[in-house]
Every structure is written in C-alpha cells, then in structure tokens.
Prior knowledge:
By secondary structure, the chain is α/β, with parallel strands linked by helices. The protein contains 16 helices and eleven strands. The strands form two sheets. A seven-stranded parallel sheet has the order 4-3-2-1-5-6-7, sandwiched between helices. α2 (48-58) packs parallel to α3 and α11 (223-236) packs parallel to α13.
Amino acid sequence: MEPSSALATPKRITILGSTGSIGTQALDVVRQHPSRFSIVCLVAQSNWRLLVEQALEFRPEKVVITNEQHHPAVEAALKVHGIDVMTGDDAMTDVLDAVQADMVLLSVVGAAGLRPALKAATGGIDIALANKESLVAGGHLVMAAAARSGSRIIPVDSEHSAIFQCLAGEDMAEVSELILTASGGPFLGKDRKFLETVGPEQAIRHPNWSMGCKVSVDSATMMNKGLEMIEAHWLFGLPPDRIRILVHPQSVVHSMVTFIDGSMKAQLGITDMRLPIQYALSWPRRLTGHLSGLDLCQYPGLTFQPPDNENFRNLAIAYEAIDRGGTMPCVMNAANEMAVKAFLKKGIRFTDIPLITLAVMESAAFEQNPDLDCLLEADREARFRAMEIINKKEQ
Length: 395
C-alpha cells in the first residue's frame, strides 16, 4: 500500500461495470494505490450484493443498479451511509452528468457500452476503454466526439494497451503495420468436426486469461480478435489492411508495431489484466507494480503463426464488416452477441455462431453514414433477426 501523502489529489474514477471481471480487477488496482485513485461512482447491472459490498468499501458518491428489480435492496443498504442510488437503463449515462469524474472506466459488456462511451466522449471525460463493442458499433461517432471535446481514450484491452505503449513518442506517419496477437483460445489447432461437439464449459476455459463468459467465447471463436481489429482501426487510425493478426499461444507478446524502416516494437508482460488496467488509470504516469514481473527464462520458445480462417470464420467476417463500414459492424456485433448468448444457454452449436452472424449481416438493411439513432435501430433489428434464426435452430 502507498502512503496517503503520495498524491494530494487522487484521480476521480467512475467504473461502469464494477462487478464484472475488469471492474473487480480495477478495484484491486485502486486498493493497491489508495492515494492515487478515488472511486466516485460504481455501476452494475444485476449483481447487487457485490455492488453493495464494493460501495461500502470504496464509498462512492453514487451507485447505479441498472436492473430496477434490485433498486430497493441496494438503496436500503446504502442510503443510511449517505450513498445515492440510481436505477434504470438510462441511469448509466445520466450518472455521468451527476458526478464529477476525471476518468470513466468503461467495462460493461457488449453494445450497451455505446451510449455511455458517446456521453463521456461528448462531455470531455477521459475514458479507460475496456468495451471494444462501443467502437465496433459506433467508432466514427465516439472518436469524432472525443476529438471535439478533448476526451482522451486510453485502451485497457491488453492488445491495444500494448500498441498504445509501443506508439508512445512515435509518428503515426512512420507506422507501417499493427500486429495484434491472439492466444488461439482453447480450441487452437482443432478442426470443424471437433468444434461441432464442444460446449460452453469448454469454450469459456481460456488457457491463459481470466475473462468473463462472453469474452471467453469470443476468444474461442476468434470474434474477439475481429472486434479488436475494428477497435484498433478507430483508436489508431490505420486501415484494416494494415492491421494483422498473429496467433501467439504463449500470450507473452501482447501486440507489436512495425515501422516503415522495418524495425518492430513489442510490449511484453504477464497475463494479468491488472497491468493494462493500472496503466490506463495512471496514464501518462506509471505506478509501482504490485505484480510479479515477466521471467523470460520461463518462456524459452515464443511462437507465432497465422490464424486458421477456414475453421474459425469470425475473423474474416469482422474484416468484411469493417470493409463495408456504416451499420455493418454494428449489425455483426449484435448478431454475434445474441448467438453467443444462445450458445452459452446450449441452444445452438459452437459452429452455428458465425453462421448466424453471417445470415443476419446478409439480410440487414444498410446505412453508410449512421447517426446514433440509426445505429440503435440497426442493433435492435439485428438482435430480432438473430433470435428468429436461433429459435428455428432450437425447434
């Protein structure tokens, strides 16, 4: 623990998604650096008991429980301590006006992150971004809003954090290529026949990282890497054909940047999300680490290989979506979210996930220059169409 005198004014943090994997690890970082960070708001969807525990420990000004069913219990537990409780789907964005935060950690899952991302970017609040879907669905809106307001978007995903660190002090005009590394997930090297038999329990068993169920399935299907490619496109301004994916099973090299002179930078580290979370929260400074460093002697062989696009089709689907642009990445993301949800409930097969996503993309209406309302409608329509297809498969 650091002495309380280490910093006169702690950075005020709002965490959207405080009870999820990223949110709980972010609070671990805050515990280790109490003089550096102050929690002003915590937001969760349904895990109200953990939210109450977190609020009693960190004493934010406000908490949000978006599931209104749990509002009475949360309010009863916290009101006596002077902590204001908000509820409802709109509260996650409304609370950004209600508290004065220096940074918002956006770690909610899925396209639900788009509206708060746009709200924070419009309001000039710095964003520690752990929700790639907000840029996948509406990257053109979020990045434009951030440019107008001066909001700085600091990536939390280990791959984008690695690239962000590799680009420090560099001229983007001298960047040739971004290389995102992928572990390959739990099914690396498996063929389609095997993939047709796998269940949710196998898919969420990531070999290297501790992640939520949805992200773990996306990793297993390679959709996570497709979403990361689109996120990297918006974050760093490079076209998709200059963003390459390499499978790196050891997950030691988190990503790389190649420059026009042929040199390359890579960022390495242990597989612990608290490292990129801490970097995003403390940027532009680095803080003393409380985790073990990387011992390269434990990794005598670091290997790299191209992705298997034949058996894992989602990566090619993501490139197709961003090439088409407009509403198509939003449609793709919504369809994938619904398909993953159905797979986790054992309603469809693992190999059905890309098929459902493609079918929704092929039938979706298309708008080249969507505003927020258009994106939200595209998202709703894609989810409806995906459920139609899923329901037929379940019959």
